[in-house]
Amino acid sequence: TLTSVAAAGTSAGGVPIAAGSSTAPPLTMASVVGSTWTGTTSSATLIKLRIDAAQAGAAPNADTWFYSVSYQTSSGWRPLCGLDAANQPIQAVPVAGVWSAVIGDSASYGASLTRFSLACRGKAIAKCVELGYKPYRGYGNHLAACVRMLRGDFCGSGNTHTVDGTTINLYDNVGVQSDAAAWGVEAEWTAAGARCVNSKKTARWNLVSSKEPSCVKPLLTTTCGANFSSGALLISELPN
Description:
Layout: E1 2-6, E2 8-10, E3 16-18, E4 36-41, E5 46-56, E6 65-73, E7 76-79, E8 92-96, E9 98-102, E10 105-110, E11 115-120, H1 124-130, H2 140-150, E12 169-172, E13 184-190, E14 193-198, E15 220-221, E16 234-238
Parallel strand pairs: 14-15
Antiparallel strand pairs: 1-4, 1-11, 2-3, 4-5, 5-6, 6-7, 8-11, 9-10, 12-16, 13-14, 13-16
């Protein structure tokens, strides 16, 4: 599993490229097509990455570029994110920062200007970026909270408690996403996981297990989701 990419690459013509920026995404424009980068896997192995194609995002993500990326193997280059139903490479979006394993949490997000992540479209990190939670806009903590939310990581441990295809409504305390559905509150979220869980609403862990996650019992309350005054960054809702 790819965990991070060094923010220093080489263009197709051999010119060094720097990707670290606090005011823009790690990579932008089509000029990086053909460039190579060094990634690190979860086993601390270095792998060579190549950007094969670029596509500018459409509104509201016109500031975001999506890339087809390959990684080098002993038998040639393979698409980093796999292939879609049309047998085309699934694109990746560069995201400043790194998700790494720390004690008690296998998916801890840390901001960084020297390393970035390549998030495959259709997965939690890329979905949250496309929802508007972009670190360079000041939403690094919201991005981390959104990823916890989409993955059903109630305990902030990196363990998921949901299934693919589950529909949720989400909104935040900064107006990036507004409450667009009159559904029942599931939980409040921070970058560390669920801040509280609505005891009156069936939560997503019931889709995968009849037993609630170990951290949930002290988080249960009937007033969860009333507002953002207790420190929540996002609130999730489930259909009534």
